[in-house]
Design a protein that fits this description.
mainly beta; 7-stranded mixed beta barrel; M1 Pyruvate Kinase, Domain 3; 12% helix; 4 helices; globular; 32% strand; 13 strands
């Protein structure tokens, strides 16, 4: 599986959205250099409140740009960085990847997929009703989360828009993504 980076975003302060950048630097075991969510232990506020010693399985957040097209059809305007992602992609089925997939990005960077982003109510504060577009149920009644995936940095490097992405699947049996 292959895709392309369409945008990169980071923010050194807590805010829902993240401004786009010309490039971001991924640091092994930490995340995006200068980003508020970078670190060995969890940085998401609600998770810090539960247990600040948890490992940070959410160092780098990726969203597929195809989601923006999907929600646009329902009247929502979402651009890269608006939902707090660090890397916006096109052409790769992020939600269909198994846990442990390695994403080779650009020349050097490698991310390991840890799970699905669990969207929160802040999405509705950004645009009322958007949460229902990114979290729903399938025909069997199972929850479907579409707001991207989370990962950790295995090999550092600089990531820029236009960089290629190549997915390396882990050994079978594959474990489907769950929220992290």
């Amino acid at each position: 599986m292959r895709g392309t980076v369409t945008a990169v975003s980071s923010n050194g302060e807590y805010s829902f959205t993240k401004p786009n950048r010309d490039s971001i630097t991924l640091l092994v075991g930490l995340g995006v250099e200068g980003d508020v969510h970078a670190g060995v232990t969890v940085k998401h506020r609600s998770r810090v409140a539960q247990d600040p010693t948890q490992p940070n399985l959410r160092q780098v957040h990726l969203i597929h740009e195809e989601l923006f097209t999907e929600v646009d059809a329902e009247g929502f305007k979402v651009l890269p960085g608006d939902l707090g992602e660090n890397i916006t992609t096109r052409g790769i089925d992020l939600l269909g990847l198994p846990v442990g997939t390695l994403l080779h990005i650009g020349d050097d960077a490698v991310l390991e997929v840890t799970g699905l982003r669990n969207p929160c109510l802040q999405i509705d504060h950004f645009q009322n009703g958007l949460l229902k577009q990114v979290v729903g149920r399938d025909e069997a009644g199972n929850i479907v989360r579409k707001a991207g995936i989370m990962s950790v940095v295995k090999e550092g490097g600089t990531v820029r828009p236009g960089d290629p992405i190549r997915a390396e699947l882990p050994a079978e049996p594959h474990r489907p993504l769950d929220r992290v």
